[in-house]
Amino acid sequence: xxxxxxxxxxxxxxxxxxxxxxxPMGHTLISGITGSGKSTTMNAxxxxxxxxxxxxxxxxxxxxxxxxxWNRRFTYVARSHAEADSLVAWVLQIIDxxxxxLVGAGLRDWHTGLGPWIVVVIDEAAEFFGLSTHEVNQLIAxxxxxxxxxxxxxxxxxxxxxxxxxxxxxxxxxxxxTMARTARALGIRILLATxxxxxxxxxxxxxxxxxxxxxxxxxxxxxxDVSLGEGMSKTIPPDSIAHDEPGAxxxxxxxxxxxxxxxxxxxxxxxxxxxxxxxxxxxxxxxLQAPAELAxxxxxx
Length: 301
Fold this sequence. Notes:
Layout: E1 7-13, E2 18-22, E3 28-31, H1 38-50, E4 55-60, E5 76-78, H2 81-105, E6 117-123, H3 125-129, H4 133-140, H5 145-150, H6 152-183, E7 188-194, H7 199-202, H8 204-208, E8 212-215, H9 221-228, E9 248-252, E10 259-262, H10 268-278
Parallel strand pairs: 3-7, 3-8, 4-5, 4-6, 6-7
Antiparallel strand pairs: 1-2, 1-10, 8-9, 9-10
């Protein structure tokens, strides 16, 4: 069935009405601290998308575990910054390719008769834009931070690496903003998840391209304002979702007020079951000539 005829069930409002969003929805941000239910909500969304034969899934998983159950359903899962950068560059090439198709066909918007919808899942945004946990561990391996900084040569190496990371973050942010801004009419959507919804992490340009927000429990005023919009922390403070409300979130669509809802319960067993059941729907997209750097990104975990 065409994805245009489908809707995503994000959960239930607190008045028990189902919270549905018609597909294609826009780019989406899922935010929330550890234990807030963010990952469960993300997996519930992926599970629904994975069941649609007209959806191709791409992923960035620098923690190496978040998207692991879905690897056989995803076309590619990037597990290093080199792979992630290549994946984003490839999606930008696909955008150019699809623009040529629309122009040649005299069309304004993508439809599944031309090719699959592509959903790019990035978890975690902080790892994508900066140094991954693995890279930080490599950087400080062999001693404490204080010990390493006491050595002039090591301190110099660390400073150089951090400077490179800052430049890389700026490039990644610019590329992701370009992808988000140009992808809407071309059948490409971004699903971005983060524990740290701050301007420093996400960037104001990328945030401006986000259409839908699912904000789970956060612990800072800035997290509310970046997630839901400037000044929203005055009416929805960080403690609006209690510690005993895992899975609860505030949902905000374009030009609407946030509404409180609760995501579906989705167990690990259900995730693995759905991933196995939908593996045969994986798109290989070999004709689009993925970069060589992604050759190992599709190997199963």
